Amino acid sequence: MIQPDRIVPLNGREVRVGRYVLYWMQAAQRAEWNHALEYAIDRANALKTPVVAAFGLTADFPQANARHYRFMLEGLRQVEKDLTRRGMRLVVRAQSPVECIPKLAKDACLVVVDEGHLRVQRQWRAEVAERIACPLIEVETNVIVPVETAAEKENFSAGTFRPRIRRQLDAYLVPLRHRKVRVPSLALEFEGLDLSDIDKVIARLKVDRSVGPAPDFTGGSEQAKRRLEEFIGRKLDGYDTRRNDPNLDGTSNLSPYLHFGQISPLYVALKVGETSNPGKDAFLEELIVRRELSFNFVYYNHQYDSYDCLPPWARRTLEFHRRDRRDSVYSLEEFETARTHDPYWNAAQKEMALTGKMHGYMRMYWGKKILEWSKSPEEGFRIALHLNNKYELDGRDPNGFAGVAWCFGKHDRAWAERPVFGKVRYMNAAGLKRKFNADAYVGKVERIESGQ
């Protein structure tokens, strides 16, 4: 089922005679459980035309580097195979979507695009909507409840957002039927990139190579589903307690795949929800309430990537304590190279830089300490966001922006007042040690660093 409020026309153009329906794939990089793709197939079948999928591969996506591009290209290579099995072409061009989609739209009856929530994604869609002569229709598929349906304005905590989204779930936690393509597009000829050699594609794009591949993560829907099956089979039981111990590998590790749209959150929720495992409630709270609160944040708060996104109470209290003495102050270079006095923080930074993913509990501690050890809260915010976006596979994401902002008071309440933090929630190494064996975590990262 494709709920009507997932579907939003972005211009007032009329459907016209054309060679195909164009599906502009961007945020939802998968060939299944994709409402935008299925809607495109519906429209193409009604018009008796094929569907052609297109992806604009720009080398200058903000803060993306070779680590992100490799993972994404591995996923797109899988998409190409999966679409071929369903009778559809994928055309990938080394151009901005604003360049390549209008060119391909010249022969299209209409264009369908998945919804993107970040500033650059929304700008692309607005520009393409103006440039093309046929309809551009946006279909939401990377959240379970469409953002505007879940709430009509920014929510300031999970406490206010939770009841709003839960009221909607019965209408949206329903399977998506996969359509059969009536007119294949495989015989149509297009110029596009050959995805068989990813190194060659990355070299051609001339992307930032300062960050290497994430060794333990391979992109693509098949990999995502394998991780989901492993999570349900081995890790879901006890998830509510095991997830906070970085020594146990108790998390799903699905966030990179969700970030690139390589797996559907609806599919994940339905698969987890059909189990009787008691750990599912804690996981679904994170997948649905917490994750979709972050989409609410970036959609309604246009300052989501700046210090000004913080709630007034947090900025006031941090301002009041701006001149408090800090026991340590580090530069971006010292943070980035993990040269602080704290072995636990250093281990977290190294884990992220080496593997592309930092454990979630450590990421909270990591962000809090950047606030504590920066010369100003604004600089701390910039440093945390820069490092998160540069090294995390799931950086540059609503969850990432919300996670960094949370360390500075976003989506949280005021706590007992203390130096530097004011009323923003505080974390320290003693708290880590009460939760888990922090020294064992350091040893684990040291083994990764040494290649063991």
Looking at the overall shape, the CATH architecture of the largest domain is Orthogonal Bundle
Helix content: 40-55%
Work out the number of β strands: 6
The biggest beta sheet, please? 6 strands, mixed
Oligomer: single chain
CATH 4th-level superfamily of the largest domain: DNA Cyclobutane Dipyrimidine Photolyase, subunit A, domain 3
What is the CATH T-level topology of the largest domain?
A: DNA Cyclobutane Dipyrimidine Photolyase, subunit A, domain 3
N-to-C terminal Cα separation, in Å? 48 Å
Question: What would you say this structure looks like, in words?
Answer:
By secondary structure, the chain is of the alpha/beta class. It folds into 3 domains: 141 residues, HUPs (Rossmann fold), CATH 3.40.50.620; 116 residues, Serine Threonine Protein Phosphatase 5, Tetratricopeptide repeat (Alpha Horseshoe), CATH 1.25.40.80; 143 residues, DNA Cyclobutane Dipyrimidine Photolyase, subunit A, domain 3 (Orthogonal Bundle). The chain has 21 helices and 6 strands. Strands 1-6-5-2-3-4 form a 6-stranded mixed sheet, with helices on both faces. α3 runs parallel beside α4, α12 runs antiparallel to α13 and α13 packs across α19. One of its GO terms (molecular function) is DNA binding.
